[in-house]
Amino acid sequence: VQLVESGGGLVQPGGSLRLSCAASGFAFSSYYLRWVRQSPGNPGNRREMVAGISSVGSTDYADSVKGRFTVSRDNAKNTMYLQMNNLKPEDTAVYYCNFLNNWGQGTQVTVSS
């Protein structure tokens, strides 16, 4: 199993980024997938689920990102996406792609002026 995130970077508040998670080694289309972030600002530095998407495309979002982030998937490309708009400094974190106990290496998102 391999999960490879990309698309992170430095962006000003109010800006946008699109993250990608390229997956291989498992039946991608069959699984619920998550974007999870980890920031030193989180209590205990715990990982926080940001968004999830089922095999049929139903989605879940953390309250903190509803209306700003959109998760999607392309099963033909074995890729999941996270479109992040109106970014805020508190969105600064390492963003991970996850399913079951499998994790990517993460991609850093920094929101700062």
Report on the architecture of this protein.
The protein has 113 residues and is mostly beta strands. The radius of gyration is 13 Å and the shape is globular. The strands form two sheets. Strands 2, 4, 5, 6, 9, 10 and 11 form a seven-stranded mixed beta sheet that branches. A four-stranded antiparallel beta sheet has the order 1-3-8-7, with no helix packed on it. The model has no long low-confidence stretch (mean pLDDT 95). A hairpin with a 2-residue loop joins strand 9 and strand 10 (102-103). The chain contains no helices and eleven strands.
Topology of this structure?
Blueprint: E1 2-6, E2 9-11, E3 17-24, E4 33-38, E5 47-53, E6 59-61, E7 69-74, E8 79-84, E9 93-99, E10 102-103, E11 107-111
Parallel strand pairs: 2-11
Antiparallel strand pairs: 1-3, 3-8, 4-5, 4-9, 5-6, 7-8, 9-10, 9-11
Strand content: over 45%
Specify Rg, calculated over alpha carbons: 13 Å
> What is the count of β-strands?
11
Structural class: mainly beta
Mean pLDDT: 95
N-to-C span: 37 Å
Number of helices: 0
Low-confidence stretches: none
Helix amount: under 10%
Strand count, sense and closure of the main sheet?
A: 7 strands, mixed
Instruction: Spell out the helices and strands N to C.
Output: EEEEEEEEEEE
What general form does the structure show?
A: globular
Task: Summarize, please.
This protein is an all-beta fold and 113 residues long. It is built from no helices and 11 strands. A hairpin with a 5-residue loop joins strand 5 (47-53) and strand 6 (59-61).
